[in-house]
Design brief:
The protein is mainly alpha-helical. The chain has a domain at 1-26 and 50-78. Helix content is 61%, strand content 0%. The chain is elongated and about 70 Å long. The chain starts with a helix and ends in an 11-residue tail after the last helix.
Length: 88
């Protein structure tokens, strides 16, 4: 079992992965913006249903919130600055 600082670092790294993955999903499934006076007739992205978009948003919101709570618990479990090295 890893010590608390290692667990905290792992949780922070996992949260960074969650943020990167959520941005990747946004890039993958977002629709291109329309610019006035610019007609783009090239490759069109497939449309995605609103339900699928909501599912992705709900999933990543849940994962990010859960990981943030885990980080808070790990931070609270760390010894305070006032505690002696004997207690730690």
């Amino acid at each position: 079992m890893a010590d608390r600082l290692t667990q905290l670092q792992d949780a922070v790294n996992q949260q960074a992965d969650n943020f990167c993955n959520s941005v990747g999903i946004l890039q993958q499934f977002s629709t291109p913006s329309k610019f006035p006076g610019f007609d783009r007739s090239g490759s069109q992205t497939p449309s995605q249903t609103t339900q699928q978009q909501e599912d992705h948003a709900h999933l990543f919101a849940t994962v990010i919130a859960r990981c943030a709570k885990d980080i808070d618990v790990l931070i609270e479990s760390l010894p305070s600055e006032d505690s002696s090295t004997e207690i730690q």
